[in-house]
């Protein structure tokens, strides 16, 4: 469903029809469609972290020079995200849309899991970039979430923007190419700025 | 007006009341509220570039080591953006909201100015970081736009998320602190990854 339409267009009616549960029953467990989607986001995020953890050891050569390791890790993170488009769509809608129509209780539950996921991503980054200390690795994990959502939005412009890009001969933003460059810059820069 | 409410809540009625022009007259020149706000975005962006151009020479020491120059430039860009909250608000809404309800014609006009502004920002970055070649500097200028909008959204969470952060003792995202770190990482990383 998420691959067919933007998060903003998904209604609670549509969600309950799709999973075959009456809307009244969905609302017995979730206070709003935003609460459902944030729960889906955390689940998809955890699934992605497991997927990424399996790929990093083979994809990033521990004996490669620092810059090459940053680029290999950036590509691995990006490719694994591109393989999880629903997660990217939910991340792109999380701060501006999904976190708006929820109670403090749902927000706390979402934030608790989000913090755990951030720590896990920071650990995964450190597997092949042990130069990064804990607070810096966690900062990069938070920033990865931020730039993933923003790059996803930029890579899915409106029909009018697509037409404008074509008429101006501007290359469209490619999610994987752009995100990979941004993450490689962030990783290499954070290490260059770290005290030795 | 933009400092009082989020872009998503600004109506064409409210816009025309504020500038004292009948809505029918606003619509004679602009096809939608999104077209008005994109025009405001480009104007605010140009004003900000002029403001930034005046500040970089004094704020970034050309004889400082590379990492220090990256950090000084990141801080100068961030402080100048923080001094232009309307611009940040419009940037944060541009890709996900404003670019959606416009014609291909308005999109082309917006994109043309946006491209000019990106080239200008790339030149300003190069004033004190001449290590950066043209395509890399332009990439960083585009990424600056992307991370500014995303950081602005993260730094303005909903009331429920603020309550959740407080109950979990999580520090809120500070726009200036976060953006400055992200930009410094991006600049230092792009230079570390540049061919000599």
Structure description:
The structure is a homodimer of 196-residue chains. Chain A is mainly alpha-helical. Chain A is 75% helix and 0% strand. Chain A contains nine helices and no strands. Chains A and B meet through helix 4, helix 5, helix 6, helix 7 and helix 8 of A and helix 4, helix 5, helix 6, helix 7 and helix 8 of B.
Sheet bearing the most strands of chain A, described? Answer: none
Strand segment tally of chain A = 0
In quaternary terms, these chains amount to homodimer
| Principal-axis shape of chain A | globular
Major protein interface: A-B, 51 and 51 residues
How would you briefly describe this protein structure?
2 copies of one chain form a homodimer. The first copy, chain A, is mostly helical and 196 residues long.
